[in-house]
Amino acid sequence: MRSQTVSDVQLGQAVLESVRDGSYPDSEAVISAELPTSALPVIIDLLETARQDVKRDIQVLSREIAPDVDGWISQARQLRNDIDRSEAEAREIVKESENGRPLQGRHKDASSKVDFLKDEVYFSETLVATLQSLQRIQSTLDSVQEATFREDYPQSIELLEDGERQLSQSWASENTFAVELLSNRAVNLRKSLVQQVDQCWEELINVDKIRQSLCIVKEINRGSASINIETLTAALDKLGLLQSRIDSCHKSLDQSIISPLLAKDGKEGHATLTIRDNSVQVEKGGGDRGVSDKLEDLKSVFGFLNTHLPSSVSLALSETLMPSLSSRLIDTWLISSVPSSLRGLEEYEEVLKQVQLFVDFIRFLGWKGEEPLAEWASRAPRVWITKRREGALLTVRELLLKGAWDTKTVERVETQVFAPEFANAQGQNGGQDDWNAGWSDDDNEPNADHPSTAANGDEEEDVSAWGLDEPTDESRQEKGARKPAQEQGDDDIEDAWGWGEDDDGSEQSELPKLDELPHSAQVHQDKEKRPEKEITLKEAYTITTVPEAILEKIQSSVFDGNTLMQPSHSQSPVAPAAAGLFTLPTLILAMYRACAPSFYSSSPSGLMFAYNDSMWVTEQLRKLVQEQSEKFEASPTTTRKLTLDGEISLLESYAKRAYSGEMESQRRILGDMLDGAQGFANCTVQPFAGQCHTAVQSTVDLIRGIERQWKGILSRSALLQSIGSLLSTVISKFIVDIEDMSDISEPESQRLVSFCNEISKLEDLFLPEQPKSGATDVGEQEAVPLTAVYTPNWLKFQYLINILESSLVDIKYLWTEGELRLEFGPEEVIDLIEALFADSDHRRRAIGDVRRSSHGR
């Protein structure tokens, strides 16, 4: 149903605006209104009215632009006329083009004929020019052949080069038969020319290798022609063959003249030089000729070459001859003329003078290649010191590598001040000296403390702790036993172990016997001070011949260095090398240290020889340094201070490493042998008992074998310290193995004591040497072994034997009243007591006493 608020006119107006302006109605009522059929006439009328208005507007506008439209129409008509005229002209052009095609064909044919005629003319002209060129080349080659026949070599070469240039510039192809013929002829002419020139060169410069002679002529006659060496040289230069011919001449000259002159003396005698007018010849059978004579011969040869050869040839020859000759002259004659010492220095100075004169002569000739000789002469000090250094190092190297084992015995003498009792001990010990003082036992090397000093210290110890000043009841029997097989009552245990109700006097009455104590404890105290005494100590040991040879080289270097620094040698050409001589000892010692391992490894006792040799060298070097220092202080300008502290330290370090290496090797072997006992567990049960016995016996035998092997090498004190150190290693391992045993039965204890006694037999190795006068006087005390001095844990080992054999009373007494605590710790003693004795009240009380006494109670 149409809304009453919207009329047909409004609807028509909305449609008109939409058609005319493309606008949309703003009224919501118009938008939502329906378009009835009754509104269509109104809409049509409105549209028609609008159309008429537009038409009237167009007519008005048409009347206003009518003049412009007439102009456009006029221009369109003119354009049409132009188009018609262009079409007529195009048709005329097409017609004329069709009429000219026959003429174009005739023109093209005529042009082709003209081009062909031009090509024919060009070919004919080129052929004529080529034939004329070939004719000229042929004529030139004919002239070359004629000039060569006349032996006019410069003209032949010039014409040949002109002909070859014409061939290269010829228009004809290289593949043309005529050109190939001419090229082959030119090549043949060149070969013929070169052959003839070479023949003339050989006639002018003739080297006879068989007769070892050289002949140079200035001019030769070939038929009616005369050829001189300058002309031939120019010809060879133009041919590009001069340098190759000079090189060939150099080789022939070297083989025939130079090499025989520079050769060392052979079976046929010495080479001598003979110079005639135009020849030089080397002959054999002359007298002895040195470096100066050789240089004079070379000067004569070079002067001959410079006189008879053109300058261009001689200069070019010198460029190839002199470098090789200089190096060979230096290697063959000059180096061998350098003396290895101050002897022959005057001859060496004369050689240097002659070399300088030879260099000046070469420079006078204008030759090149003398620089190596001039440099060698200017480096005379360095050359001499290099020869000296190489000779010294080679001598040391050969000495060590050839492995000659010649030995000798040397002595070390030293004067020291000692207490009288120490001097007496030295007399009993054969005057032994402290070997290599300052070496600690921790480094596995000889100790600095002299054995007698340690023994004297033991004499001053308070021996009251051993109970030697108290009376003992020798008739009293020890009451005690080891662990019983079965448990007994407390009363039986007390009776068996000697424990009484009154403990006050029983412990003191059960002292160990004096002969069971260590030997070092069986001395008396002497505290009286006595005046000191000066004595001379001597000690012999063995070295190889190597250190003497090395020391001789070092002393020779120092002596020659001092000699060159004297005013009498100030003008010597090798005087500046004096400083280098003082550095040779460092290099010699470095070479010794480098080659020594291979030398000493060839002997079973090589490291001990290395130790002795090195220490002997260091001792001698210190003396040499001291002597040189005294000379330097007396005359600083004519000598030089010798500084070898670093080398001495390195040599001592090498000696210590050698000694330590040998000791460590022997310790390892001894340790491996004792490892065969497997800690001495079950040492009473086979097969373990046999293994333990074998291990101990092998260890003892090895130490004795080492002592026999080193006895002839090391000094007495060093030998005792070395064997003592090895024995200390064995004892330490033995003690550790015993302490690690948690339970030791009585049979095992007895077996262990037997092992200890076997090891204790090594004590005879430490007996002092008897004086050379003969047997010991009657009434003189028996010599006391110095085992405790050289074996730090020897007393501990002896105490271990006592512990294994003693009762609880004895062990307690040794701990509380004796000096057991000086060697064993409380825990060690407690562990041994627990391993040796069964658990009981007595054992517990003994352990308690040990603990209380260790805390000062």
UniProtKB/TrEMBL annotation:
Keyword Coiled coil among record annotations: yes
Keywords: Coiled coil
Stretch list, region Disordered: 421-531
Domain annotation Centromere/kinetochore protein zw10 middle: ranges: 226-399
Any one of the GO BP annotations: mitotic spindle assembly checkpoint signaling
Biased composition annotated in UniProt, kind: Basic and acidic residues: 473-485, 510-531
Cellular component terms per the entry's GO annotation: cytoplasm; RZZ complex
Domain ZW10 C-terminal helical: start-end pairs: 695-847
Pfam families referenced in this protein's UniProt entry, alphabetically: ZW10_C2 (PF22766), Zw10_middle (PF20665)
Ranges annotated as biased composition (Acidic residues): 488-507
Membrane spanning residue stretches: none
Coiled coil, from the record: 44-96
Official protein name in the record: Centromere/kinetochore protein Zw10
Species name: Xylona heveae (strain CBS 132557 / TC161)
Taxonomic path: Eukaryota, Fungi, Dikarya, Ascomycota, Pezizomycotina
